[in-house]
Design a protein that fits this description.
Length: 339
């Protein structure tokens, strides 16, 4: 009895991994080119617009709205505006052959019987410093029910379920403003912009593919504390005003960055004394800490919460647009490597 119960539970777990909300998926870390057809099988179908009628209407159709249906099963995936432009999965979720040469298929699947589909590819997996693994991923996702725009871009989360898909969507959306992602609504004129959008994704992949060489060069280039301080001095904090209060805040920020550089903060023990350390310090502070929100886990007093909130507001005021400042930092790192 117990044995049959365990087998039944094991089967349920396996089913949950391969079938989610009526959809299907394919997961693998490294897939040979010969099995690529199997990889894209969950999304390999087309959709089309269908006119809508209602009971008793005869031949009359509903103006302004259409159904998006799968051509293989005739199943309705959603009702949208007649101005809605459906994007075919194989046209938007599969990069062209020249880009695929830079990628390793990772995960592919659908939710809601095919209303939402995605593909994910590994661009890089490497260790610039032993023990410090870096994984860069490209995620592409599209909907046929009007619930979300077409999105594509760099993504840290590996998509294996609806929760991780949601996390990936948030990551891609935040990367759009940084030039590392694209977003395209299914409007009537979207077809004209789709080609440019796909070209942008191809450029993002090509640039990211060269990151391993850049990161290795950073890890191999020494950077002393004195040199790191000089880099801090060279950053222009675009919103910083010349008053004592903000000067004090900037000094506090400098101290925090130095602590991270010297390995005195969790997660910064790899690659000490190199430009790779400097790079990680800047990227974490500009792209992570800058947007972190405080949540009281019960361990912070009201005074501590107010202090942290004040520091966060001050930190936000120290910076202009993170993209501008990060480009400035990256230019300095490139110059150091070239020298």
């Amino acid at each position: 009895m117990a044995s049959r119960l365990l087998k039944r539970r094991a089967k349920m777990v396996a089913d949950m991994l391969t079938v989610m909300d009526g959809g299907n998926s394919f997961f693998n870390d490294h897939i040979s080119v010969d099995s690529f057809d199997k990889f894209v099988e969950p999304i390999n179908f087309t959709v089309s617009k269908r006119a809508l009628t209602f009971e008793g209407s005869g031949e009359d159709t509903i103006d302004g709205q259409v159904a998006i249906a799968r051509d293989d099963t005739n199943e309705c995936l959603g009702v949208v505006s007649s101005r809605y432009t459906p994007f075919q999965n194989m046209d938007t979720l599969v990069p062209p052959p020249e880009v695929m040469e830079l990628l390793k298929p990772s995960t592919c699947g659908t939710f809601k019987r095919g209303a939402i589909g995605w593909t994910q590819f590994e661009i890089n997996r490497f260790e610039p410093v032993k023990g410090d693994e870096v994984v860069q991923r490209l995620a592409l996702t599209n909907s046929h029910d009007g619930s979300m725009p077409y999105l594509g871009g760099l993504c840290m989360t590996r998509i294996v379920c609806e929760n991780t898909h949601m996390a990936a969507v948030h990551q891609i959306s935040s990367n759009v403003s940084e030039g590392k992602g694209v977003k395209l609504k299914h409007t009537a004129r979207a077809d004209d912009r789709l080609r440019a959008t796909l070209d942008t994704i191809n450029s993002i992949v090509a640039e990211a593919a060269g990151f391993a060489e850049f990161a290795t060069a950073l890890a191999d280039t020494q950077c002393t504390e004195s040199q790191f301080k000089s880099m801090l001095d060279g950053i222009s904090f675009t919103r910083l005003k010349a008053d004592a209060k903000r000067a004090s805040r900037k000094e506090g920020l400098r101290e925090r960055l130095l602590n991270m550089f010297n390995g005195e903060a969790v997660g910064h023990e790899f690659g000490a004394g190199s430009l790779w350390t400097a790079y990680n310090v800047f990227t974490e502070e500009f792209t992570h800490n800058r947007g972190t929100r405080v949540k009281n886990s019960g361990n912070l007093s009201e005074g501590d919460l107010n202090r942290v909130a004040t520091e966060q507001r001050a930190f936000s005021n120290l910076y202009g647009q993170s993209q501008k400042d990060m480009k400035e930092v990256m230019q300095q790192l490139h110059v150091r490597i070239a020298a």
